[in-house]
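## retry 2 of 3
previous attempt timed out at serialization; input unchanged, resubmitting
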Amino acid sequence: MQKLIDTLKSFGIEIPEDKQADVKKALSENYKNAKEVAKTLSKVEGERDNWKERAETAEETLKGFDGIDPANIKSELETWKQKAADAEKEFNAKIYDRDFSDALKAALDNVKFSSEAAKKSVMADVKEAGLKLKDGKILGLNDLIEQMKQSDASAFVDESQQQAQQNQARFTTHVGQQQTPGNMTKKDIEAIKDPSERQAAIAQNIQLFQ
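## retry succeeded, writing output
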């Protein structure tokens, strides 16, 4: 505003110094310089162009609905909403099935099956049982596996029986290297330190203990 006061002064209109502050205040409230006017004008023009673009876009969109029954539009919109919901549901189901299968494989790593076919059958039965996956764990899986072992024992390896067979095989090899079964004495059998081998020797020479 000082520039305006100086301009007035050049025309012979001089504002007393004690009044200049009041004049500047009055001028600032009612007048703007060229830069401020240009800035305001640019903002207004930008807003005008923005609303013009929106109006034109809306007009083009409305033209696309010419001759279309509003009821059909609503019906089609609902159809697409349902398709989107179904697609999301299907996607979530696939992710859940994948996570369930991964958790099941990990959980069955320590379970011994009689064959690969038996393992696949058990896994299929588990999936059909409707157990739920929570925090990466299948709820109720251990109880279901125990029930399956009771109802279909042939699908699983009896670990206690397997251990006994291994002990028997080891004992037989041990005996074969030292003494032929049936030629051992009671004293020889009682001298065996390994309990499993000793029991197997007693079973093979039971006549010595009758």
